[in-house]
Write a structure and sequence with these properties.
CATH class of the largest domain: Alpha Beta
Order of helices and strands: EHEHEHEHEHHHEHEEHEHEHEEH
Number of domains: 2
Oligomer: single chain
Number of helices: 12
Helix content: 25-40%
Structural class: alpha/beta
Largest sheet: 7 strands, parallel
Number of strands: 12
CATH superfamily of the largest domain: NAD(P)-binding Rossmann-like Domain
Shape: elongated
Mean pLDDT: 97
Strand order of the largest sheet: 8-7-6-9-10-11-12
Strand content: 5-15%
């Protein structure tokens, strides 16, 4: 019997690497664990997990010998870590290896919204440049004030990039941090009121649900641009859509949504939003590095060695 179960939608290359390393049992989601025979479930000591479907205590109880859930991704809000703690189950994730890609996308989306690159591209592609002349003037992005809502590893990478665009950097975190003179705000409303661009880099989960509230969005104001590369749950999406539709917010650049990939169709009617399909870490190089780090955590667990990137 295999000591490893793999849960989630892995690529063929990742499945092959997992098979070579662990000869695991594959299932599509935590809900399918109940369909495995007792011997398979009782033999499993580690799970390699990928996806956003809830992995709760009831699912963990189906694997009585489980000692590790190795998550694919830096965000692990789908895993009930408190339930894992209560059962003595370790949890790991895959931080750092995706920082650059996520930060790059955040900056790219901000530039796309400010410079209206999506619309300008369509202007050129449709022949309107030839027929009607130059595209309309848009908005300078460099030199503005940028707010980072969550100054963790990825938040710092984004801040460093925006500083290179001659921006004044403001941030919110649970406590003030050592920075190169960046301006700390103790609450998100104060941060939003002080900046032109607000980049959301919070972890997901109940503690940050609707952290970007209607009040935060109102404070950002009609010249503000909201960028979200965290989780769809961190923003009050209904309030965001209302503000975008009513012109109370200049624009948004979003890589994450509630209910994704089935996102609210109200977004499709808006020309002041950049939409991306949750592809912050979506490069060949980074996804390969994430997969290797996940496998290395599983291998370390089976070998009785220290975990590389523990969460709990």
């Amino acid at each position: 019997m295999s000591a490893t179960i793999v849960i989630g939608p892995y690529s063929e290359a990742d499945r092959a690497a997992l098979t070579e390393a662990f000869a695991p049992v594959f299932v599509a989601s935590p809900a399918e664990l109940a369909g495995l025979d007792n011997a398979t479930r009782e033999a499993a000591r580690a799970v390699a997990f990928k996806g956003h479907r809830p992995f709760d205590g009831a699912a963990m109880d189906l694997l009585p010998a489980l000692g590790l859930i190795a998550n694919f991704g830096v965000g692990y809000d789908a895993i009930d870590v408190a339930a894992a703690d209560a059962r003595g189950i370790r949890v790991t994730n895959t931080p750092d290896v995706l920082n650059d890609d996520v930060a790059d996308l955040a900056v790219a989306m901000l530039l796309m919204r400010g410079r209206e690159m999506e619309q300008a591209s369509q202007w050129a592609r449709s022949g309107q440049w030839k027929e009607k002349g130059e595209y309309r003037l848009n908005r300078k992005v460099s030199g503005g004030k940028a707010g980072i809502l969550g100054l963790g590893r990825i938040g710092r990478e984004i801040a460093d990039r925006l500083a290179a665009f001659k921006m004044e950097i403001h941030y919110f975190a649970r406590s003030e941090k050592e920075t190169p003179g960046w301006i700390y705000h103790a609450d998100p409303v104060s941060l939003a009121a002080a900046v032109d661009y607000l980049v959301v880099v919070l972890v997901g989960g109940k503690e940050t649900e609707k952290f970007v509230s209607a009040e935060v969005i109102e404070a950002l104001g009609p010249r503000g641009i909201l960028v979200n590369i965290s989780r769809g749950t961190t923003v009050d999406e209904a309030a965001l859509l209302d503000a975008l539709e009513q012109g109370r917010l200049y624009g948004a650049a979003l890589d994450v949504f509630l209910g994704e990939p089935d996102i609210d169709p109200r977004f499709y009617a808006l020309d002041n939003v950049v939409l991306q399909p949750h592809q912050g870490s979506g490069t060949v190089e980074t996804r390969a590095a994430m997969a290797k780090l996940q496998r290395d955590n599983v291998a370390a667990f089976h070998a009785g060695a220290p975990l590389l990137t523990p969460v709990n």
